[in-house]
Design a protein that fits this description.
Layout lengths: L2 E2 L1 H8 L3 H9 L6 E3 L2 E5 H10 L4 H5 L20 E2 L20 E5 L5 H9 L2 E7 L2 H14 L5 E4 L5 H11 L6 E4 L22 H11 L3 E7 L9 H12 L3 E8 L10 E8 L7 E2 L11 H5 L20 H9 L45 H7 L12 H10 L3 H20 L4
Parallel strand pairs: 4-12, 5-6, 5-8, 6-7, 8-9
Antiparallel strand pairs: 1-3, 2-3, 9-11, 10-11
Helix pairs in contact: 1-2, 5-14, 7-8
């Protein structure tokens, strides 16, 4: 019996490869995965063609199927931008004594990119929740062992009752200023299959439960740009609606990390909400496209630096042929034409393309015959040089690619701080 690849199945059925992948992930098309490659049997493809399934019925089972437009909501973002330039020089990461009076909890914390940015802005971390062991090791090393913060840091599954009980027991009597979380985005990503029944799509509801339990003044959520178009915007509307039900008015827009001094083009959806009845502020951009930070300026200092595993500056070994291919590749191009952001050589004098978590080997150095090291990638994410990633190189790259750029986190933190200060002046509790 004949067996097809995804490409062959797409050609035979006159469907796109993305459509084939979506149905495989939705389990409406049976396929076997062998060494990271899907294989589709003739009989299974024939059944799929005969039933002619679509993903509409899956959407009907989704938690997002009964979304109604909130009163007065339009498709245009309602954003209140605020100038943060007067506080931008502050760096609570370099000097942990440089604090404001406010605290935060980081859910889905990863290695701590958003936490690092909030510390830069002057916030004090109280607790973090993360399930990836290597990321927890990184977070604990940098925030507890190196910086001395007294916070709850464990490898924990946010879905468990134990996590919620522990947070309530340890922090329930504290006034929480901010809860943040970049809930997992694999089910929403424009680069993925975007199947609405993916269980990970509902993890924001676990964050909502904790917010409702601890009642922080503000909440910040981060996700990929693709979330906004999911089910024609109904996913975004559902998230806003669910938080409104527990008393939080949300404003949302897309921010580009490059606008906040990050040497990387990285757009992220940022939800900011509060229960105080005051305005939510997003940070006003600090830079414009004409004066963005460049990849070259960011990683120039590593050009002649020797390999240093202790600071995550470990080189990948390449064959002579691969070295030549990388050196001959034109800036802005990918080594493999069908992957726009994989094995790509970003221009030296422009911001980097988006750093992703697909296990490295995807960002080629513009001047040297090798891919970028974890340290260089962390620098393009705007991590401080003394922020060290734990785990094998593979997991370091995953942590870096998944992280919120700290400088973007700092900008968001400064905007939230200004809003909290307004609430303090108004004596809003």
């Amino acid at each position: 019996m004949k067996i097809f690849t995804i490409e062959e199945a797409a050609s035979k059925t006159n469907r796109s490869q993305k459509t084939i992948r979506r149905h495989i992930h939705a389990k409406t098309l049976k396929a076997d995965k062998l060494q990271n490659t899907y294989r589709i049997h003739q009989k299974d493809l024939d059944i799929w063609i005969k039933t002619n399934p679509n993903l509409e019925h899956l959407a009907k089972k989704s938690i997002f199927n009964k979304v109604e437009l909130l009163e007065g909501m339009t498709r245009e973002d309602k954003v209140n931008y605020i100038d943060i330039s007067d506080s931008w020089k502050r760096d609570g990461w370099k000097d942990t004594k440089c604090k404001n009076a406010y605290n935060f909890i980081d859910l889905f914390a990863g290695a701590g990119g958003l936490s690092c940015g909030l510390v830069m802005a002057g916030f004090t971390p109280l607790a973090s929740v993360e399930i990836l062991p290597s990321a927890v090791d990184t977070y604990r090393y940098n925030f507890v062992e190196r910086k001395g913060f007294k916070e709850l840091v464990e490898t924990r599954d946010i879905r468990t009752k134990q996590v919620k009980d522990e947070l309530k027991t340890n922090l329930g009597d504290k006034e929480i200023d901010l809860i943040v979380g970049g809930f997992p985005c694999q089910g929403f990503s424009m680069a993925g299959s975007r199947v609405v029944t993916d269980d990970r799509n509902s993890l924001y509801l676990e964050m909502r439960k904790i917010v409702d339990l601890l009642r922080p003044k503000f909440v910040v959520m981060e996700n990929v740009e693709g979330l906004r178009s999911m089910l024609n915007g109904k996913v975004e509307e559902k998230i806003i609606s669910d938080f409104k039900e527990i008393g939080y008015e949300i404003n949302v827009t897309t921010l580009n990390a490059a606008d906040y001094c990050v040497p990387q083009l990285r757009k992220r959806v940022i939800f900011i909400g509060n229960r105080l009845g005051i305005k939510n502020f997003h940070p006003e951009p600090l830079l414009s496209e004409k004066n963005y930070e460049t990849l070259g300026n960011a990683i120039r200092k590593y050009m002649d630096e020797k390999e240093n595993v202790s600071k995550n500056h470990k080189f990948t070994k390449h064959s002579d042929l691969m070295k030549k291919r990388m050196m001959d590749l034109e800036e802005g191009k990918s080594l493999y034409g069908n992957y726009s952001d994989a094995w790509k050589k970003s221009p030296w004098d422009k911001p980097s393309c988006t750093i992703k978590e697909n296990h490295g080997g995807v960002n080629i150095h513009p001047k040297l015959p090798r891919v970028l090291t974890a340290r260089e990638l962390a620098t393009l994410q705007s991590f401080p040089e003394d922020f060290i990633f734990k785990g094998s190189k593979k997991w370091q790259l995953v942590q870096i690619g998944n992280a919120v750029p700290p400088l973007l986190g700092k900008a968001i933190g400064l905007a939230v701080e200004k809003a909290i200060k307004i609430s303090d002046i108004k004596n809003v509790k």
